[in-house]
Amino acid sequence: MSVKIKTVTKQLPKYSRNTDEIIPFLDTWLVGQDERFIRKVKKIFEGAAVDKRYSIMDPIEVFTKTSFEERNDIYVREVIDLGEKVLEKALKKANWNPEDLDYIITVSCTGIMIPSLDAYLINTLKLRQDIVRLPVTEMGCAAGISGIIYAKNFLQANPGKRAAVIAVESPTATFQLDDFSMANIVSAAIFGDGAACVLLSSHEDDKGPEIVSEEMYHFYDNIHMMGFKLTNSGLQMVLDIEVPETIASHFPDIIHPFLEKNNLRIEDINHLIFHPGGKKIVQTVESLFSSLGKNIDDTKEVLRLYGNMSSATVLYVLERIMDNQPKKGEKGLMLSFGPGFSAQRVLLQF
Question: Where is the active site (predicted)?
């Protein structure tokens, strides 16, 4: 049973700032810190390869001390709004009605809400009362592809069905005002907020790139590499400096066996749809593929235009690829990394 990606859409929050507009906020935030440290922080922001980032909060709110409850209330309110808008946009683009959906997966790791986003979308968009729902909450940047994998497995087992994967993230809601660690600073420099929706189908009349294969890859003994620590002030970023090197050391095992199972080599892949985790990760991945004549230009451009929006970001890359209308028969490889530590892979044929 063929499972296809019908369409991908994005939705951005109402607030945005260029990186040079963020620098004055750093001066206020870092008052009293060592001058060399302040220069280092500014250099990290200026060298992050992120020209602009969007946020569910005005920067003044981001750099204002608030409680975890107050931040999370903003997260819940804005995530619901973004989720509704991006799903409605995707349904319109696909020419589907809300009641056409059989399965809804919502993805987010940057706040806490129960009921989860999918419950709100069922009510506001009047999705079917028998729709199957799955919230994915703790897989970080990898979860956008995780959602696609779960949707694919459901649709493959249920011919003639349709699914939506909605990823909504607000890393700025996790920013810790009293945390001057490199993990908090680097994450603030590279992350932004955003939402994306992927519609998938096992209906024979629906067209789009086919999901040929999918797999997860789990790194042993690297649980400490990435995640959040729940503190009294909110979700505190955990981000190990060795993430790029760890990814690089596992890359041959992540890529080549997966392709070999599908009788392919990396040379056979036309489109690399990689999650832009940050400048160093992008440079690491780029160095591994440049010698093969491959590029990750769309990944770099998404990072530049929006920053790393956690699980939603790779879906922005996918949207760019699909909007360029790849030739029939071309192949794409989706890849993202997340806490655990893990890598998620999806092979597409256009």
Answer: 141
